[in-house]
Amino acid sequence: MEKQSLPAKNGPEEPVIIIRDLYKSFGDLHVLKGVDLTVFKGENVAVLGKSGSGKSVLIRILVGLLKPDKGEVTVLGHQVNNLPENELNALRLRVGFSFQSSALYDSMSIRQNLEFPLKMNIKNISKQEIDKSVKEVLEAVGLEDKIDQMPADLSGGQRKRIGIARTLILKPEIMLYDEPTSGLDPITSSEINKLINLVQEQYNTSSIIITHDLTCARDTGDRIAMFEDGRFNKTGKFEEVFNDTDEQANSFYNYNFIQ
Amino acid sequence: MQEPVFNARNNKYVLSEGLDEFFSGVSKAYRFVGQYFRQAFKPPFHFSEVVNQCFEIGLRSLTLITLTGFIIGIVFTKQSRPALEDFGATSWLPSLIGIAIVKALGPLVTALICAGKVGSGIGAELGSMKVTEQIDAMEVSAINPFKYLVVTRVTATMIAIPILSFYCILVGLMGSFVNVSTQESTSFLTFFQNSFSTIHFLDLFTSVVKSIVYGFTIGIVGSYKGYYATSGTRGVGKAANQAVVMAMFLIFIEEVIIVQISNWIRFF
To answer: What is the pLDDT of residues B57-102, one digit of tens each?
Structure first.
């Protein structure tokens, strides 16, 4: 399901994520070395790069899980670096984060996993409202029949879907996907890619998709950002990024699609 | 010659690797304890989770405490009898057992059992949540993981362990009574009256305070080790193990300090 064009936009392009000159190191390991990126409303940006290159660090900084050493990060008009805890939490409610490991609460059933963010964040929410929201997100990810199972009973792909459903239940404006197709077979990966596009359409989200899977980037990204040596060295549509003489881009392409 | 270590900002050790790690660990633990007290009294309060954890802790340890308390009562009575018989003072046996179990053995044995059962459980559970990103998942959902996971567990251990300690004391005295009643025709009521005849309010109060302190120690050490677990499943095992060893070590130190303080209070 290759994407052909950017989603239709109403009016001028509105940036929802602005990253400027971002640096992050862990001891002597310099992971981000002056990253710049802007994500516009309704847009899916696929960040491609090698495993361990620091792509996940970037989206962890966006939700305040990590602090940058230097640089500015603006999400939905808020400077993440300087936000007090209550404002950061208010912002986090508007940003969904799908973890590479799914990070489902393994002591809770699927229903409890989905109810938990609602119960903890919305005071006096009724049982009917909770049930309605749970049903809605389970329908969106196509796993209504798994509601009373435990996370350990699900397959890897199903866990990823439930992880995405858990973030959708708070109706986020931005979705951050950390390696959504890693460890999955090609058919399940394709289903996850379709789900990412479905979320963009149904929930009108803007997304950053961190991946090293070129198929995922091609199928889900309105724009591709190639991450290399701590910064983005190339951004553009899939055809633009991979249809030139750039050695790194081509080696990535060849590895994914030829080997 | 190796360059002397002097500057942490340049990734050099200020004192030595071991000492630097020790002092930074102490400082991190101090901040962790401080965070507990700051968050414990600030809403929202997760009462239902505290109650859940109390049940978890109680049920997890009840069988072992029953068995251990009962056996301690029997064995301690059996071992003390010959010494008292030498002085013709077997009638003092219930008082001796009462003092030993209420003032020392009950709270201490309960704390040690719970350090093993509950402390390791908390360390492993939080450690596993940490390495599988479940704690991060809470944080990005705008849920305070420290408040939901740590505050509730530490509060629950501070409530459950004093209750379990008194249960252990009662079971221990029952064990002792079983042994006494096989040798002498002492009634249940007389035995308990004699057991508590030399126990004062300060003794009971000290036992309660001790149990609360032990509960706090078990909860906070288990949570701390789990919350900062690293290195995957190996880190989880390490966190559980360290939670037990560290909690037991601190419990023994606290026992000495609290007994000393209660003796000073008694003296004045």
So the answer is: 988 899 999 999 999 999 999 999 998 888 888 888 999 999 999 9
Q: Which of A25, A56, A63, A75 best probes binding to B when mutated, by most B CB atoms within 10 angstroms?
A: A63
Is A9 part of any domain? no
Last residue of a domain, one of A152, A171, A190: A171
Q: Are residues A33 and A90 in the same domain?
A: yes
Flag if B137 and A120 touch (Cβ within 8 Å): no
Q: What ipTM did this prediction achieve?
A: 0.88
The answer to whether B251 and B214 are in contact (CB under 8 A) is: yes
For residue A7, being part of any structural domain is answered with no
B143/A contact by beta carbon, under 8 A: yes
Per the structure, the complete domain to which residue B161 belongs is given by 26-267
Q: Is the dihedral of CA A182, A46, A256, A197 positive or negative?
A: positive
- Residue B15 resides in a domain: no
Q: How many domains does chain A have?
A: 2
Render pLDDT for A195-227 as a digit per residue (tens, 0 to 9): 999 999 989 999 999 998 889 999 999 999 999
User: CA triplet A44, A20, A10: central angle to 5 degrees?
Assistant: 40
Select from B49, B131, B141 the residue whose CB has the most chain A CBs within 10 Å, as the one to mutate to test that interface.
B141
Of A27, A107, A117, the CB nearest to B143: A117
Q: Tokens 């567990």 belong to which residue?
A: B153
Residues A197 and A150 in one domain: no
Burial status of residue B40 (CB atoms within 10 A of its CB: 0-12, 13-18, 19 or more): middle
Q: Is residue B9 part of a domain?
A: no
Is the pLDDT at B29 greater than 60? The verdict is: yes
